[in-house]
Design a protein that fits this description.
The chain has 266 residues and is α/β, with parallel strands linked by helices. The protein has a domain of 186 residues: Rossmann fold (3-Layer(aba) Sandwich). The chain is built from nine helices and nine strands. It has a five-stranded parallel β-sheet with strand order 3-2-1-7-8. A two-stranded antiparallel ribbon has the order 4-5. The chain has a two-stranded antiparallel sheet with strand order 6-9. α1 packs across α6 and α7 crosses α8. The relative contact order is 0.19.
Amino acid sequence: MTEFNFKALSFGAGVQSTAIALLIKHNPELLIKAVGHLPDKAYFADTGAEPMSVYQHLKMMQGIFPIPLDIVSNGSILNASRHEDGKKVNFVPLFTEHGGMLNRSCTAEFKVLPVRRKLTTDYKERFGKLPKGKGKVAMWLGISMDEIIRMKPSSLQYMKNVYPLIDLSWDRTDCFNYCVSHGIHPPKSRCYFCPYTADWHTIRRNKPDEWQLAVEYDESHRDLSEYGVKHKCYVHRSRQPLKDAVQNQGDLFEGFFNECEGICGT
């Protein structure tokens, strides 16, 4: 079994990562038996655009979290912005009118990067040097059995992705039921305007404030010509304004496994 210098949990404040946090708190021996260790610290990457239900859940979880939890950020995802090189633009994968999508950089820039940056700082403070070599850091990710296609190795040599829910053979329903058994009903973690959203009709009906924010984002990002985008952009896959596209019959489920690389929705 691999010996890690540092073990971290990527906490998305969704169903799966909440289940992991509760397992650490209430059934650590189960995780140790399945995985071989427990995480030292957890990180929540704040994009600045989570639904209010997620921020409320995060605040509640901070009060009971079983290990240190840091909230990290790489700024707000709400606006397209140029990368440090002045050429690359950080984009949400909006649908474009010619049939494609903008290149997705939101997960890497606003979820993965701030966590890795803070983790590296914490590692250096603890060990007096940066992590080097193979498998020095374990990164726990909340991917469950029904999302197994989203598993992938880390792009960093010093980091190994660990999937405790896979080791436990838990699916999303197992995670949700476990949370409920402890009196917690976690929300789905995602940016409120995410183009991969499949339940717009439910959001429009049940979460009018969140729906209005998504509509405003959609309309304010129609024209991104200042960033070199030649075509109109849309949040909805129909390539219509969101307020017009979502009809009473609702959206058909599609694209879940194209979501956020096993980070955003965990």
